[in-house]
Amino acid sequence: QFDDMVSALRKKGIFDIDGCVDSEKANIESALSPCGLNLIVAADDTKARELLEDWKLYDRKAMYYPAKDIIFYQADLNGNLITTERMCVLKELISNGKNSGGLNIITTFDAFMEKLPGLGIIKDNIVTLNKADSIDLEDFTGSLIRSGYEKTAEVEAAGQFAVRGGIIDIFPLTDENPVRIELWGDDIDSVRAFDIVSQRSIEELDGVEIYPASEMILDREM
Description:
This protein has 222 residues and is α/β, with parallel strands linked by helices.
């Protein structure tokens, strides 16, 4: 039965390779991987991160999807870092249909076996804001909190937001820089990315997509 299964897999273009040293795995995998979405599963976190470094030689956009660390996941530093890595991959999965290139994701068996909320749930909770849009400040901040963002006096890290009068600072979990939204009444007057240290504007934006800061997204009833 095993031989029949292997034969059937090979007919579908799935096969095994023996005698390959670790340094050559990424080279062979990249050569054999078709375009589109490719999932590479490693034995553990150490092997996966080593494989990611090798894959970067062939695909700089290759990404790592880590498993939740049961011991440290609740700690602010490690939990936020892991959530950020996972959410960035989910963002690419959602937007991959808009891109012409492929997507290579490296993960582990532990992460591969975890149950996840559907991508549709993440997608439905993306907040998109554009210049000249009107927002209800109370509803907007409430939606941020329900999707995992923390309200603070000043934004210092990804996953936080702050409100000062008609100014909303928010650091989307999947972005490199925080965003400052200036309101004129209920209308968005400007959207700008700014530097977290100097607080100076980097560039003016037409809008921003805010992905959830947590995989556990609560609606009002929950």
